[in-house]
Amino acid sequence: MAASHSEHEPAHGTLRRRWKGVCVAAAARLASRPRLTLAQIQARGPRRVLIVRQHNQMGDMVCATPALRALRRCFPSAEIVLVTAPVNHEVVAHNPHVDRVLLFDRTVWRDPVRLWRFMRALRRFRPELAVVLNSVSFSVTSAWIAAVSGAPMIMGGDSRPYGWDLSRHLFSLEMPSRPDMDRHAVLHNLAPLEAVGVASAGLETVVVPTEREGAAAAALAARLPAGQELVLLHPGAGKRENRWPPARFAAIARRAAAAGARVVVLHGPADGQTLAAFRAALAEEPDAAVRARVVVASTLAMGVAAALLQRSDRFLCNDTGIMHVAGAVGAPTLALFGPTDPRLWKPLSPLVCALRGESNRLDALGVETVWSALLALPSRQDGVS
Questions:
Q1: What is the pLDDT confidence band of residue 11, given thresholds at 50, 70 and 90?
Q2: Nearest CA to 352 among 62, 121, 104?
Q3: Is a pLDDT exceeding 60 seen at residue 20?
Q4: Whole-prediction pTM value?
Q5: Is residue 228 exposed (0-12), middle (13-18) or buried (19+ Cβ within 10 Å)?
Q6: CA neighbours within 13 Å on the CB side: how many for 24?
Q7: Inter-residue contact 81 to 102 (CB < 8 Å)
Q8: How many CB atoms lie within 10 A of CB 269?
Q9: CA dihedral 364, 337, 221, 380 (to 10 degrees)
Q10: Could you give the CA distance from residue 183 to residue 247 in angstroms, rounded to a whole number?
Q11: In degrees rounded to 5, what are phi and psi of residue 79?
Q12: Disulfide check for 224: which of 73, 206, 262, 314 has CB 3.0–4.6 Å away?
């Protein structure tokens, strides 16, 4: 019997990957660089350093900010430019350890004009050192960006554990790679740098809202009904299995509002269905005054959301990107975890507490359990050392 098309796909995929691997390795050999130690790189005194981390996961980017701080301390006199994805622009745009951010949108592959503009901006910077930051994967695109930047020296993770024979030719200094998440995400980002001599400069993550974003958050807070605490909720998450039921978020909102809190619901562009379910459950509240104290915000820019989190007394969210933003700005946060291990992903801030469902299931968390944990959150003063 003839094999189906779907049965052939894995073999075709493997063949394509092997052919791509051969081409990548050949190109890397043509662009090979001499091997150097960190001390030798530092002795050359690079004045312009390009950091490439163009992955599009916001939480991962926040967890990488201590690595940016470590690189700034390693090259204190250099101008540092970070290449990242547009989705991460607002969380790194005002990072004190980066001088400028250059955006790389993967859709440029379909637009030669935009690709040429990106490459022109990249080449104009004329980096003397490029650093490719990876986490649990190896990005050939990131390595390509570092190479075409023209940087004579490149630091990056070993590509061989991921099946690519690239780094030993292309990189001046290979850093050990860890395909498995065997430690907290912040430590996992720092480990390759530390292995070659780049010392950590602290584990605190960094997100810095601007004064304008702070003013926008203040204006939003001023329009809220009069009340006591400011309680924020974010019922959405990128992964379905990471979402606590929206109706239970609505139950928490109703309780907080009934207790006199001002409640604001945050959401992102992809949270439409979750938000609709939340609104439907909130509408079941018979007390109009309680309903009026729950405000569903418009879709906020991430910088404004971060500034609002800075003003909040309590924040309830799922395991998703904004959880890391909350940890970075010091918001007392209760983060709900299901299949993801909080030992690896809960922000390290002492103001962030994790609550995980039995058998790693979010729907095993009841409203009473979450409400009690939310009330027990530490205050901002408890997070001051």
A1: low
A2: 62
A3: no
A4: 0.90
A5: exposed
A6: 21
A7: yes
A8: 7
A9: 110
A10: 34
A11: -80, 125
A12: 262
* Burial class of residue 80, CB neighbours in 10 A (0-12, 13-18, 19+): buried
Q: Which two tokens stand for residue 102?
A: 């250059």
The structure tokens listed for 5 are: 């098309």
Strand duo 100-103 + 262-265: pairing: unpaired
Question: Position 167: which residue type?
Answer: S
Structural tokens at position 337:
């975890």
Q: Within 13 Å, how many C-alpha atoms sit on residue 230's CB side?
A: 19
Per CATH, 26-195 and 211-378 having the same topology is answered yes
- Sort 381 into a burial class: Cβ within 10 Å, 0-12 / 13-18 / 19+: exposed
CA 198 to chain CA centroid, Å, is 22
Class of domain 211-378: alpha beta
Mean pLDDT of the chain: 91
Amino acid occupying residue 120? R
Residue 6 in this model has a pLDDT that exceeds 80: no
- Tell me the CA end-to-end span of the chain in Å, nearest whole number: 70
Number of H helices, E strands in the chain: 17, 12
Q: What pLDDT does 385 receive?
A: 44
- Assigned token pair, 364: 């095993």
Alpha carbon separation from 190 to 2, 76, 145, 244, 349 (Å, rounded): 50, 18, 21, 31, 17
SS3 18: helix
Question: What is the dotted CATH code of the domain comprising 26-195?
Answer: 3.40.50.2000
Parse the chain into domains and list their residue ranges.
26-195, 211-378
Element (H, E) at 67: helix 65-74
Whose tokens are 């992102």? That residue is: 268
Taking the CA atoms of residue 258, residue 261, residue 380 and residue 87 in that order, the dihedral angle to the nearest 10 degrees is: 110
DSSP category for residue 226: S
Residue corresponding to tokens 């809202």: 209
Instruction: List residues bridging with 70 in a β-sheet.
Output: none
| 244, 363 contact by CB (below 8 A) | yes
The number of beta carbons lying within 10 Å of the beta carbon of residue 367 is 17
